[in-house]
């Protein structure tokens, strides 16, 4: 599976309204193989703001920093608890490191070569990729395409 997450500099420079955020994030994080995953919703964003997982929008608009955070949360929410993701992001983005941490996540997911990526980001990316790979294999098994070893039948 090929991932294509935008680097920080490729995220919209202008702040976005909620409906624009939903459209943008769901297009980027649409790699979920689970049909039960409806992606990011307005209720989820409101909940994330309410619980302090993302900053409140300013004049109903979301910044690049909030957008990056929502992309990461939406990508990882099927694998990790929101509280775990949020706590990890707090540590990684301390000292104004949001851009660097987000770019590390993107590089890891896009299989780009980059140095000094924190082990927690590498591990989260590997876990997410294995999660998607497992779901893909399950779908193939349901269709009768492979046996349990992963070989074609």
TrEMBL record:
InterPro entries from the UniProt entry: DUF1836 (IPR014975)
Matching Pfam families: DUF1836 (PF08876)
PANTHER family: DUF1836 DOMAIN-CONTAINING PROTEIN, HYPOTHETICAL CYTOSOLIC PROTEIN
Name of the protein described by the UniProt record: BS_ykrK family protein
Species of provenance: Streptococcus ratti FA-1 = DSM 20564
């Amino acid at each position: 599976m090929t991932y294509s997450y935008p680097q920080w500099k490729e995220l919209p420079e202008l702040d976005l309204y909620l409906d624009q955020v939903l459209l943008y994030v769901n297009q980027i994080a649409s790699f979920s193989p689970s049909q039960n995953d409806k992606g990011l919703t307005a209720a989820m964003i409101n909940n994330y703001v309410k619980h302090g997982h993302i900053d409140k929008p300013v004049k109903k608009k979301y910044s690049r920093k909030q957008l990056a955070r929502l992309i990461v949360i939406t990508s990882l929410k099927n694998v990790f608890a929101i509280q775990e993701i949020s706590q990890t992001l707090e540590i990684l983005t301390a000292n104004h490191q949001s851009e660097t941490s987000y770019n590390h996540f993107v590089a890891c997911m896009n299989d780009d070569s980059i140095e000094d990526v924190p082990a927690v980001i590498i591990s989260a990316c590997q876990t997410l990729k294995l999660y998607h790979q497992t779901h893909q294999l399950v779908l193939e098994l349901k269709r009768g395409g492979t046996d349990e070893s992963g070989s074609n039948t």
